[in-house]
Amino acid sequence: MRQAAYLWASARSQGIPTADNKSLDVDIIISAQWQILKENFPGRYVVVVTTNVKHLSRFTEAKVWRDIKF
């Protein structure tokens, strides 16, 4: 949640609101988790699979599940 709060504040200071002024929305929480995974597993491919690519791709690598190649 600290990472999410940092990301939320950073986005706000750049004029990129993500939710109500007093709220952390789930996009920011998911994005923070993505950043933590990416830092802790270097060399691994970490992607958020979602139907909300537009919002999440501002902070993460996000793809629609149909676009993931195994």
Q: Count the E strands.
A: 2
Radius of gyration: 13 Å
Count of runs of 4 or more consecutive helical residues: 3
Overall mean confidence score, pLDDT: 88
The portion of residues forming beta strands comes to 5-15%
Order of helices and strands: HHEHE
Unreliable stretches covering 5 or more consecutive residues: none
Helix content: 40-55%
Largest sheet: 2 strands, parallel
In total, the number of domains comes to 1
Q: How do the strands line up in the largest sheet?
A: 1-2
- The chain-level structural class is mainly alpha
Distance between the termini: 31 Å
Note the overall shape: globular
3D structure, described in words:
With 70 residues, the chain is mostly helical. The chain has one domain. It is 44% helix and 6% strand. The chain is built from three helices and two strands; from the N terminus they run H-H-E-H-E. It has helices at residues 2-13, 26-40, 53-56, and strands spanning 48-49, 62-63. A two-stranded parallel sheet has the order 1-2. Helix 3 links the parallel strand 1 and strand 2. Helix 1 packs across helix 2 (26-40). The radius of gyration is 13 Å and the shape is globular. The model has no long low-confidence stretch (mean pLDDT 88).
